[in-house]
Each structure stands twice: as structure tokens, then as C-alpha cells.
Amino acid sequence: MTIVRVRQHVNPLSAKYQEATAAPDWAQIYAHRTRPLHLDIGCARGQFLLAMAQAWPDWNFLGVEIREPLVIKANQDRDALGLSNLHYLFCNINPSLRSLLLPQSLQGASIQFPDPWFKRRHQKRRVLRPELVADLARCLQPGSLLFLQSDVLEVAAEMRHLVGEHPDFRPQPHGWLEQNPFPVPTERETLTLKAGQPVYRCQFLRC
């Protein structure tokens, strides 16, 4: 078994992460290109999507992650299972989303347990910013859902506020969700709940 050692934190504002990632040939990525596509931002080791791709075989899944060694290993795990509806991509999603995906090409998206960047001077590094919310609104089809969750109330509340400020998103429902709408939890979610700690979840409709 290969152990992948990576840095826990990567500064997304570093110059080397500011160049937009070009879109691959999606027809070469997915066996059935026209299936609905779900984007998971900050997918880490990709175990959530690895399970989702098997639970929902009629969907395509795309995981993006800024730590390249995790992406390499995640794609190896995918290949070992022979999954043709799953791909992991190394990129910084903030400068890259517009170049990666066409308008209204997503039927779902999620940001789960993003790096909280607790220090005040580092909070500008948090993944969800107004510009990314606008890009998600552009890429999501009307009627699609954006799912957000964190075990840090401040981070979850900030994400909920940022998305709620955009006119194209409507909370579904208002307030926090008690249950995860997906059939598969993330690794962090499992560990948090096992420790008896709360998870703050919310969901928005692209209207």
C-alpha cells in the first residue's frame, strides 16, 4: 500500500496557483459525456466521489483538488475500480472554473469541509469567495443544487451568507440541514460525527 504524504495546507494565493487550468477533452474523460455532472470542490483524497461514482452510476463526477499528490493517488484508485464516470483534476478552482466548464454544464456541486484558515490574516485564502459563487451560478443549470458543509460554524455560516447573497441561489430549505442529502459521507464527516461534534450543512437551489 502506497502512503501519500502531502502538505496539509497549500496557499491558493501563491503565484504558481494563479494560472487557470485548461479544460481537458471531456469526451476522452467520461465514457458517457451527456450524463449529469457533479463537481466536488476540494475533494482531498477523493474517497467521497469514489463511493458516489459507484452509488450513482448514471452520473459523472469531477473532483478538483489543489494538492497534486492527492489527485494522482485518487485517479489511481479510480483506475483500480475501472470507473469511467469519475475524474480528479489538479487545479486551483478559483481562477480555473470558467475555463474548465461551460455555462450550465453542471447539475450539482458541493464544497465539503474546506480548509478553515483560522488565522484572520489567512482567511482571504478560503476557497469560497463572491467570484467563485458567481462562477458556480454560471456553471450550474437552473434547478441544480449546491451543497455546503463544515464542522466549523464560522466557515459554514460564511459560505451560507456568500451564496445567499447571490440572486441566483435560493436556500433549500432555510437554515441548517439535519441530514446529509447524499448517500455517502465524507471521511471528515464520519470522523466528526463519531466524535460527537456537530456538522453544519446547507443547500441552495440554482433558480
UniProtKB/TrEMBL annotation:
Binding site for substrate: 119, 151
UniProt-annotated binding residues for S-adenosyl-L-methionine: 40, 65, 92, 115
Catalytic activity: guanosine(46) in tRNA + S-adenosyl-L-methionine = N(7)-methylguanosine(46) in tRNA + S-adenosyl-L-homocysteine
InterPro entries: SAM-dependent_MTases_sf, tRNA_(Gua-N-7)_MeTrfase_Trmb, tRNA_methyltr_TrmB_bact
Keyword Methyltransferase: yes
CDD domains from the UniProt entry: AdoMet_MTases
GO CC entries: tRNA methyltransferase complex
Enzyme Commission number(s) from the entry: 2.1.1.33
A GO MF label: tRNA (guanine(46)-N7)-methyltransferase activity
Function: Catalyzes the formation of N(7)-methylguanine at position 46 (m7G46) in tRNA.
Listed name of the protein: tRNA (guanine-N(7)-)-methyltransferase
Protein source organism: Petrachloros mirabilis ULC683
